[in-house]
């Protein structure tokens, strides 16, 4: 009898602790401090995209400019005066944005009425949480001088998998998922679905600027992701890790296509505009 009572008390204690933890997480989700930090994360993300777009433009013009990917952009910031401090702040801000999205993935999904909408919310916010967490870690590594080329990381991650058929299938599947995410970005930009993410839009000419930047930005980012995913899938089909080169390799490959420099320049401009749109998100995103 005493053992049963002890077990019941222990279970009750665990349940109360879990309830307190969930209450604390829900308060954090709605806190002004976390939301302010998360909005700063959009600014940091915008800066990274603008730098990637600028590097891509330089590549299209034949003037080089470093790796046309996240690591190249972060390296550019790290080399600037005070850049490591700026990257540290950006890492914290994007980390806050990742935490906010992770909390939304849990609480927003629970608030939805159907299983389908619960799953949709969880996947949407959960995916964003992973993306911003990766960006935060990358910025943090460059802030402390431990950053490295993302293309090398991608090749290194793919190489062990391509030694067996199951690994090749997995690499192809990952590539297909990235292509799917790219297509989603293109559709989101072309159909203006991004407007659902905004708590309100600016009026007049400012509204037109936000919409133009978002449409061009989402489509350009989608095209870039489709190129990355296609190369990754091709690496899996051919069991060649050298083809899994990440965004930098995808943009270099794009430059080598017929009229590729024009396409690359358009993608570069689009990524810059996506960065500008991220600045607008810092103010108008529905957090």
From TrEMBL:
Protein name: DUF1206 domain-containing protein
InterPro entries according to UniProt: DUF1206
A Pfam family per the record: DUF1206
Span of the signal peptide: none
Basic and acidic residues biased stretches: 17-29
Source species, domain of life: Bacteria
Keyword Membrane: yes
Domain DUF1206: 41-107, 124-192, 216-284
TM stretches of this protein: 37-57, 85-103, 129-146, 166-187, 208-237, 257-280
Record lineage: Bacteria, Bacillati, Actinomycetota, Actinomycetes, Micrococcales
Keywords: Membrane, Transmembrane, Transmembrane helix
Region (Disordered) residue spans: 1-30
